[in-house]
Amino acid sequence: MTTSTFLQPSETALLPFVSVENMMRLVNTTGAAVFMGELAQYIEDDFKRWPEFDKTPRVASHSRDGVIELMPTADAENYGFKYVNGHPKNQREGYQTVTAFGVLSSVANGYPILLTEMTVLTALRTAATSALVGKYLAPKNAEVMAMIGNGAQCEFQAVAFREMCGINRLRLFDIDPAATRKAARNLAAQGFEIVTCASGEEATEGAQVITTCTADKQNATVLTDNMVGAGVHINAIGGDCPGKTELHRDILMRSKIFVEYPEQTRIEGEIQQLTADHPVTELWQVMTGAAAGRQDDRQITLFDSVGFAIEDFSALRFVYSNVRNGAFCEKLDMLADPDDPRDLFGMLERAKSAPPAGIENMAV
Amino acid sequence: MTTSTFLQPSETALLPFVSVENMMRLVNTTGAAVFMGELAQYIEDDFKRWPEFDKTPRVASHSRDGVIELMPTADAENYGFKYVNGHPKNQREGYQTVTAFGVLSSVANGYPILLTEMTVLTALRTAATSALVGKYLAPKNAEVMAMIGNGAQCEFQAVAFREMCGINRLRLFDIDPAATRKAARNLAAQGFEIVTCASGEEATEGAQVITTCTADKQNATVLTDNMVGAGVHINAIGGDCPGKTELHRDILMRSKIFVEYPEQTRIEGEIQQLTADHPVTELWQVMTGAAAGRQDDRQITLFDSVGFAIEDFSALRFVYSNVRNGAFCEKLDMLADPDDPRDLFGMLERAKSAPPAGIENMAV
């Protein structure tokens, strides 16, 4: 963006913006694995101070083909929200199933301080959260993870679980073999030992961790009861909105269930299949030590992941910490900033003496 | 923004963005009065199809110094939301009391199609809505408007009321004389006949329309009962959140009250002073003819304005119609768009072969 000199917005009015290209550059500068490890630390720090947050279930607008959601949260210093859509049919039409962007603001004056793409960032924070939870709940010395559903989230999960939990062997299955080939190609290049499987049953054989991450919006049974042996940790990602689940109810009845925010998970998660008073454990309490995590080697632990606003808040904080010095971002003229804050109309009038359009357009 | 050739995002991934500078240029190209008149037509069209919208009270995050709100709504084709803050103390520290931005999206695939500044646009849509309502409710041949509160919204209200209701004489009062001087200077330059007043009482003398638009967050009585004569239309703008009202309760008891969305106005508007079953008339029903507006020359009509998401939706639609051909906007690389939508990880990996940072930075 080029702005004419005498309309130059002040620093106050310029908002740091992280484009997709800059986000990829930021991630690749440290590497996705280290990036997710550092991001997980931010998430863990925020989970440990859970009561400090202003929390609300996300605000969803459902339509025939998908959902658009706003996910706000705030602490005393910052307010953050994410815009995210979920449209399972998009993928068949060449669009992303999930796209997202987010904003971090100052609570003190309400001004946004960061606008960032979050399609890539959401993939990273979802995997970072799963692996962080895995660090607390997965069986010790786990090496093998089954991955059912090999879409856009799959590789991020694998890389995060290796970084934080030591997983290095993967058993992949997807109802679309092309998805499995894509994931296997990408993950082999990352040095994983990979077995591609012909069924979900085959994928779960010998796995200590089972990740389900499928896209179809239906009450599916990606996992049936017979596929889940004693001591396994289930990382259930895909069941994340009303009418979209992946696990047979019998598995839930055998598992110790861990959730982010019960008020939201009971609506959106696997536990929408259970009664509203079915016991669940809040992850933040596991992290502070107030509640027990895995209690023995034979217990089945289940992370009923739906994705909560605080994880996005942590991701926004983390990105902001990386762009404060001006790196990896552009500056957007998004906030009107008249010399006299009450003279918005005068600012508009004075803009009439600006040079004709075209100067900006040349730089676009 | 310059992006390197082999990372050039596709058209799908580029989001039109209207900066503050481009918004001012767009408004000044047609003139603020005509812009608000055209915008009011969009608002009226949307109010007339009110039942088609997915409506919800805004999602507010309150803090000691202010509030940050998200205001979403959708019809079958588009989803829109606005981010807006309200921090009364900002003005004293050189910041805007209200800043805002908004996004319009496609319901079909969830992709954003417009990002725009809305600080200037909100000022325009608020005034356009008031004048549109004035067109329905103000006494015939009204010429004189009292304006109590001469802050950032004042001039926009005056210009919109002249455009749509024929108001050309203004009586201004603000507890801060500097605010009145600012408004008088700006509005004299627009050709209004102006009387600056020493009190609210003086301002209301002979006025057929009374606009209240003050910023302090308290239960104030900017208007007391004796100041409101028969037949007046009150355009009450400033009482718009819990604990912030401008009118004495007795005035409400004598007025026929019109609101945007009762579910929100009962929480935020002047009528938070009344019982939850106090009768109000929904403006969309006045516009469709389903409900009566002003019923006689002596009736006091009151627009208890709080600002509703559909007005922002209309404003987003209107701006989008003006930038579809590429004018008045830049294109932001905000939406990740891998060749294979399931291969987000592969896109990230391939970005490693991008040229070093710095090319973009030079163009910022």
TrEMBL record, chains A, B:
Bilayer-crossing regions: none
Domain of life (superkingdom): Bacteria
InterPro entries the record matches: NAD(P)-bd_dom_sf, ODC_Mu_crystall, ODC_N
Name of protein: Ornithine cyclodeaminase
